Fold this protein.
Amino acid sequence: MDRFRLPIDQIQLSQIYISSDKLSEVMKAFESGKEDELEPIPIKELDGNLVSTDGHTRLLAWHLHGYKEVECEWEDVEMDWDAYRICVQWCREEEIQSIIDLKERILNPEDYQVLWLDRCRIMQDELTLKRKTH
């Protein structure tokens, strides 16, 4: 797959929280000098924005280690783009404009489950229900 580099601050996020456990795991790669083994950030062009569909924890780790650019690849999996649009809207509502804004939004696993994962599941359920009734 074609890889390319993007400035971290030009990547539109689709997540409003980071799990402290996940961040701790990713930071271990940097501590052991294996950050080059981390997966690239999957990017999808959505409504004129370059949106990260995954890898927010890796993005934050790269930022915390002083990197200005990250290796990316185009997202090639079809996903629920309506759900991603909602997530991007949540980021805008929370004034999350770049990965730097997630530095203060690192949650313990329990809070991450409730505030992010459960919120996403509810949104997915609502989208499914809405699609069935239309």
